[in-house]
Amino acid sequence: MIRPRTLERYLARQIYGATGFVLLGFLALFAFFDLIGELGDLGKGEYDLRQVFSFVLLNAPAHAYELFPIVVLIGTLYVLAHLASNSEYTVMRGSGLSPARAALSLLKIGMAFVVLTFLIGEWIAPLSEEKAQHTKIRALSSMIGQDLQSGLWFKDEGSFINVREARDPRVLQGLRIFEFDSDYRLRKITLAERAEYRAKGVWQLNDVVATVFGPEPRTVREKQAEWRSAVSPDLLNALIVKPERMSAWALHKYTQHLESNRQKTERYEIAFWKKLFYPLAALVMMALALPFAYMHARAGMVGVKVFLGIMLGIFFHLLNSLFSHIGLLQNWPPLAAAAVPSTAFLASAMLMMWWVERR
């Protein structure tokens, strides 16, 4: 009779090894795609190969966070399918490994994945994502972009630009433009309540107050005005952290800020709950892989099961994104929009296990 703890250690060693290998493979694949995508900007400004590789490496933690449930599913499914094909799992069952005991063992093994996913999503990925975007934007342009308490700051040739709020890269709120002459003397200050991107390099300013300094200072008020600048939505997109890439704490604080200003918070509330549920998706994926260990093993079935695991993982990733958008459109409670995909997959895993046991 094999001791339960011995079986758990053996399964843990196999699953951790397989999951790590799959994760490295996926990260290498995504790094290759990122590298191909960045080569189009190679040579612009100071964006050389060193900067390109730095950007690709700094994007790796964000990819790891997004891929973790998928790689856990594939790694666990491969191990269980391989054990079943070699009749090792049959021996384990004969040694007292019941379905309930197997599920409990996978739960214990999966807690390491939950903690690791939470750590990456809460601290490592947001910091590396911010560093990656700042590295690229500084190398591509002479502009300076910083996120301070007063908002975003940019430098565009002889002007310094401050944006109070920019949740959408094509719409800016609370814009201030400080223009200087060649001797670095303040020449003009332009204030605008709102700026909307219209065409290449052209922004439309609304509710504009412009103060011109000189021998005869004057203030001009306009309902609308045109502003030409190298500041583009692409530039802003690199500096604005998407809700999906923010930490749960940052989402919580930003949601409170929006509520205090009576602005819509649904998108950020859904992202917040997704951040809390996403680490638990690793356990759901392991539960989904368990029924495959009880299916009859035939020649070539390991490869088929792994391929099926890849398809299920991709489907989960798509479903997770889809329900976020559906929740926004249908005004679902944020908790429901975030929990439905994981709950549906957990119910599917329990149904599959019940069906396998009945056979």
Using only C-alpha atoms, the radius of gyration works out to 26 Å
Major sheet description: 7 strands, antiparallel
Order of helices and strands: HHHHEEEEEEEHHHHHH
Distance between the termini: 26 Å
Uncertain parts: none
Task: Based on Cα principal axes, name the global outline.
Answer: elongated
Work out the count of structural domains. 2
Which sequence of strands runs across the widest sheet?
1-2-3-4-5-6-7
Helix/strand structural class: alpha+beta
Percent helix, as a range, is: 55-70%
Number of distinct helices = 10
Q: Tell me the β content.
A: 15-25%
Mean model confidence by pLDDT: 85
Number of strands: 7
Description:
This protein has ten helices and seven strands. Helices cover 60% and strands 18% of the residues. It has 359 residues and is α+β, with helices and mostly antiparallel strands. It has a seven-stranded antiparallel sheet with strand order 1-2-3-4-5-6-7.
What are the SSEs and their pairings?
Elements: H1 4-38, H2 49-85, H3 88-94, H4 99-140, E1 146-148, E2 151-156, E3 159-168, E4 171-180, E5 186-199, E6 202-212, E7 218-228, H5 233-239, H6 248-260, H7 266-277, H8 281-289, H9 301-330, H10 334-358
Antiparallel strand pairs: 1-2, 2-3, 3-4, 4-5, 5-6, 6-7
Helix pairs in contact: 1-2, 2-4, 2-8, 2-9, 4-8, 6-7, 7-10, 8-10, 9-10
